[in-house]
Design a protein that fits this description.
- There is one protein chain.
- By secondary structure, the protein is of the alpha+beta class.
- About 20% of the residues lie in helices and about 45% in strands.
- It is built from two helices and eight strands.
- The protein has helices at about 1-25, 120-125, and strands spanning about 30-35, 40-50, 55-65, 70-75, 85-90, 100-105, 130-135, 140-150.
- It has an eight-stranded antiparallel sheet with strand order 5-4-7-8-1-2-3-6.
- A hairpin with a 2-residue loop joins strand 7 and strand 8.
Length: about 150
């Protein structure tokens, strides 16, 4: 009798954990914006933080060339602000983007949620997300803009 109760409790616990994980996983969402210029690839990923109280904006940048970049500055234009970062002697891992910023928008400030349509995303981003990049390398100083566009999931 006691063994049956333990087995029943164990089975119920496993079912509860499975349903919780399934529900919790289905609540995870992210929205991706990507763009490129002659020398750079950029992306901005929007995702909720762990307790889903804020939206995180994570910006990444990857050079398309192997030139020796000694310094670069990125000015961004996001709906939550305009973060600006400068890197001295950046170390890019080949083939991997470098995270250039992580910014957040508080709960309710921007109405993001799982399952938003392209039209809803475009209404929030009524202007393009832009990375303005200036950098120095062996051949001098350069400047480019990357216009990031929403990439719907297929």
């Amino acid at each position: 009798m006691k063994v049956k109760r333990i087995l029943s409790f164990g089975a119920l616990l496993i079912i509860f954990i499975g349903v919780f994980l399934l529900f919790n996983h289905s609540q995870t969402w992210s929205y991706h914006f990507q763009g490129s210029s002659e020398h750079w690839e950029g992306e901005c990923i929007l995702t909720p933080n762990r307790d889903k109280s804020m939206v995180l904006f994570v910006g990444k940048l990857k050079p398309k060339t192997s030139s020796n970049i000694t310094q670069f500055t990125v000015q961004t234009d996001l709906v939550i602000g305009q973060p600006k970062v400068t890197w001295e002697s950046p170390e890019f891992e080949e083939g991997k983007p470098l995270q250039i910023f992580g910014a957040s928008a508080g709960n309710g400030s921007i109405p993001f949620r799982a399952g938003m349509s392209t039209e809803e995303i475009n209404r929030i981003f009524y202007r393009d997300l832009v990375f303005e990049i200036t950098w120095n390398d062996d051949s001098g100083m350069h400047a480019e803009k990357i216009f990031l566009k929403f990439v719907p999931r297929s």
